[in-house]
Amino acid sequence: MELMNQSVHLESELKKALAGNEFRLFYQPKVNLSTGKIEGMEALIRWEHPEKGLIPPAEFIPIAEESGLIIPMGEWVLRNACLQTKEWIESGFSPLVMSVNLSVRQLYQPNLVEAVEQILKETQLAPEYLELEITESMMVDKNLVIEVIKELRTLGVQMSLDDFGTGYSSLHYLNEFQIDSIKIDQSFIRNCTSNSYNSSIVKMIIEMAHRLNLKIVAEGVETKEELIFLQKNSCNQGQGYLFSRPLPAEEISKRILEIEEI
Ligand code: C2E
Ligand code: CA
Ligand code: CA
Ligand code: CA
């Protein structure tokens, strides 16, 4: 009962937060591991609560999902991420692909493709600068997801499979879903230099991605040793605290120069 009250309370707080503009986007760079250049950013939502401070997505996304509030929240994320990308490109920071996370409910929303198309038009961002990240756990209705991915790609948007290795990981997916890239889950990157199981898994996933002509991204890169391991094994991109934590747009611009020195 107590828990239920809490979540009802949070839900009404979330509604107010959306109306009151309390959400913020942080950005985390995706770095090309052979050149060291930033090629993309991932938008990650934060809730700037007037009393409680910065609240991470894990604490409110599930409730936004359950209540359906994720739909307007997701559109807010898309719109703002596209606007920020446009701004960065216009200031000379290019090429830059912006990755936005989709939630299950968004993926199954009947007008997702129209909503994405509308936001691209409204923000005047060329579709090739947008990438949508989905996870294997979202593949409940396979045929529907195949269709949605196809339509999104027809718009010109790129598709990425996030948290790879943690879901059902049917290898059929990689063939049936027309994705452009895979992100190796951070749990495998953790200790991949000292743990031989993780090291084998990471090598195998990279190798597989190359054979399937998919771009391969490692998330959660925290140490120089992990970076060297990934470079040795020809991983295309990396993302993680070693390069930068997710930061507000203003601070990212400052980090850009420092990252190129790692
Ligand atoms: P994700 O998409 O797998 O994002 C990666 C998470 O790992 C982020 O947590 C990021 O801050 C964190 N991270 C990045 N590099 C490192 C590292 O080197 N070490 C460690 N320990 N962590 C690292 P965050 O921002 O708290 O987001 C958590 C999850 O919330 C995301 O996982 C994503 O599933 C969801 N999320 C975030 N923003 C959005 C959004 O706008 N929409 C939706 N639907 N989901 C979102
Ligand atoms: Ca993600
Ligand atoms: Ca992930
Ligand atoms: Ca995740």
3D architecture notes:
- Residues 7-260 form the EAL domain.
- By secondary structure, this protein is of the alpha/beta class.
- The protein is 47% helix and 21% strand.
- It is built from eleven helices and nine strands.
- The chain has helices spanning 2-19, 61-67, 70-90, 104-107, 112-123, 142-155, 171-176, 186-189, 196-211, 224-232, 249-259, and strands spanning 23-32, 38-49, 53-55, 97-101, 130-135, 158-164, 181-184, 215-219, 237-239.
- Strand 6 (158-164), helix 7 and strand 7 (181-184) form a beta-alpha-beta unit.
- It starts with a helix and ends with a helix.
- The mean pLDDT is 92.
- Bound molecules: ligand C2E and calcium ion (CA) (3 copies).
- Residues 162-163, 183, 219 line the site of one calcium ion.
User: Beta-strand level of the residues, as a percent range?
Assistant: 15-25%
Global outline: globular
Mean pLDDT: 92
Order of helical and strand elements: HEEEHHEHHEHEHEHHEHEH
- Please give the count of helices: 11
Give the oligomer, counting copies of the same chain as homo and different chains as hetero: single chain
**Helical proportion, percent range:** 40-55%
Termini separation: 51 Å
Which molecules are bound besides the chains? ligand C2E, calcium ion
| Rg, Å, rounded | 18 Å
